[in-house]
Write a structure and sequence with these properties.
The chain is α/β, with parallel strands linked by helices and 147 residues long. The chain has one domain. The protein has five helices and six strands; from the N terminus they run H-E-E-E-H-H-H-E-H-E-E.
């Protein structure tokens, strides 16, 4: 497991690439401490404070287990296929203690075994049931997609 400092560096790098691809006018981005219900990043976008919560579309444990499975009916395979939905559902249950808008960015940093199309479809299906506190939901893989 990476340290919080290392995770923060990765999240900042991912967010900067995402913002560029998505065409967001970001004038600043700061990593927040992981305590007190504060989302991962505080940004200034078009002169507005916007927080972003980030989640990687990857489970190392599941990916390792799947590598040993050659049966698509195996429960491990089914769990992997639905992992993006699980990430989404876990995030929308959280409550953030900020009054400014919060957006969710689920990203693929190349460690997911699923193609972007499957991950994106799973997130879209989950988002039909609600967005929680999030103003917008994004998926960043090969492209930046607002859901």
């Amino acid at each position: 497991m990476a340290s919080e400092h290392e995770k923060g560096k990765v999240e900042l790098e991912v967010f900067k690439r995402f913002a560029q691809v998505a065409g967001l006018n970001v004038s600043s981005v700061d990593k927040q401490l992981p305590e007190g219900g504060i989302p991962d990043l505080k940004c200034i976008i078009d002169n507005e404070v916007v927080y972003f919560e980030l989640a990687e579309a990857c489970s190392q444990d599941i990916a390792k287990a799947l590598a040993t499975s050659d049966n698509r009916d195996d429960p491990v395979y089914v769990e992997v296929k639905n992992y993006a939905s699980d990430i989404y559902n876990k995030k929308i249950e959280k409550t953030y203690s900020v009054s400014e808008p919060v957006e969710l960015l689920i990203y693929n940093a190349g460690r997911s075994i699923l193609p972007d199309e499957v991950i994106l479809e799973n997130i879209k299906n989950s988002a039909q049931h609600g967005k929680g506190q999030f103003r917008k939901i994004w998926y960043f893989g090969e492209h930046a997609d607002e859901i």
